[in-house]
Specification:
The protein is an all-alpha fold. The chain has 15 helices and no strands. Helix 4 packs across helix 9, helix 7 runs antiparallel to helix 13 and helix 9 packs across helix 10.
Length: 327
């Protein structure tokens, strides 16, 4: 039940954040908006963890904060920041479809980093996903090359951060780990926003009520609720099940973009989307040849099993064999 609730949360909430980011970007600089979003969400979560006693129990030190900074930088600065910038150039549905390539990157990284062999269905899914992305960004329509490249880089960063989060020395409490990542990302984004000159171009009086409402939604649901749920899922489910959010999110994003801001859905987008979603479904249905994937808790035992399989152990000699040995 808890797993289903967590998956349902990231299915629907993250599908809607593409629209919310697009609305917030109308009168707020994207990097500054994200910095404020993550700072407020991280501060609220960290305060809650202090009240519950999680911070005292975990006592996060330099290693934990370093891991939180690395993962927060990949997931929230490179990925979410890249998407927020790219959505100034590309439609929300287009961005969501490209982000559906995350499971493809995660499957490849699982093979390269954790040594998990890919079943045939997963290989076929990766090939189909690349075909779908090629169809989406290939000839036959106007494509923003820079926006597309930024989103694909963002998808790769999310995959790298997700794989690293499985083995990183993060706090065991998902809410505390999420709070630390949000706070670290907020500081990084604030620095980038200041370097970009956003502070001199923003006026509180020019911020529209719609952008402000979108920011509040992103803080509460997109960051506090959904990001905490994702952190819990990283430690409790395998990559293939976790990555299914990537084929639900685009459907939600495309429908909301069409319903609320009049984004066009053409035949090319529908065809590419179906191919991408089919590829991710193939990854979801593919069976792992060696059982469950390693999580943060099971990685040590997983490595021991792999080492044991790689080492040939000679059986102990029997008593009859010992008697045949010459004196």
């Amino acid at each position: 039940m808890k797993r289903g609730a967590a998956l349902g949360t990231i299915y629907l909430v993250w599908g809607s954040t593409y629209l919310a980011i697009s609305v917030a970007d109308r009168t707020l600089p994207p990097l500054l908006m994200l910095s404020v979003r993550f700072f407020v969400a991280g501060a609220l979560l960290y305060g809650w963890c202090l009240w519950r006693g999680d911070v005292k129990a975990e006592r996060p030190g330099r290693r934990q904060w370093g891991a939180a900074a690395a993962i927060g930088g990949l997931l929230l600065v490179v990925d979410t920041g890249g998407v927020a910038l790219a959505e100034q150039r590309v439609p929300t549905g287009y961005a969501a479809l490209l982000i559906a390539s995350v499971p493809l990157f995660m499957a490849v990284l699982d093979r390269l980093v954790l040594g998990i062999r890919l079943p045939f269905g997963a290989v076929a899914g990766i090939a189909a996903g690349l075909l779908g992305v090629g169809l989406l960004v290939g000839p036959g329509g106007r494509v923003d090359i820079l926006g597309t490249a930024v989103i694909l880089l963002a998808a790769l960063a999310w995959a790298v951060g997700s794989v690293f989060a499985r083995i990183a020395p993060l706090p065991t409490k998902p809410a505390l780990a999420a709070a630390m990542q949000l706070l670290c990302a907020s500081v990084m984004l604030a620095g980038l926003s200041a370097a970009k000159g956003d502070l001199s171009h923003v006026s509180l009086g020019a911020v529209s009520p719609a952008s402000l409402a979108a920011l509040v939604y992103l803080v509460v649901f997109g960051s506090i609720v959904a990001f905490t749920a994702y952190g819990w899922l990283l430690s409790n489910v395998g990559t293939q099940l976790l990555s299914t959010y990537a084929y639900v999110n685009p459907a939600v994003a495309v429908l909301l973009g069409w319903a609320f801001i009049g984004e066009r859905i053409g035949g090319k987008e529908v065809a590419a989307g179906l191919v991408i979603l089919a590829s991710v479904a193939m990854l979801f249905l593919a069976r792992e040849p060696h059982g469950a994937e390693p999580t943060a808790e099971s990685l040590e035992a997983y490595i021991r099993r792999q080492d044991a399989q790689a080492v040939e152990v000679n059986p102990a000699p029997t008593l009859a064999e010992l008697r045949r040995i010459p004196a």
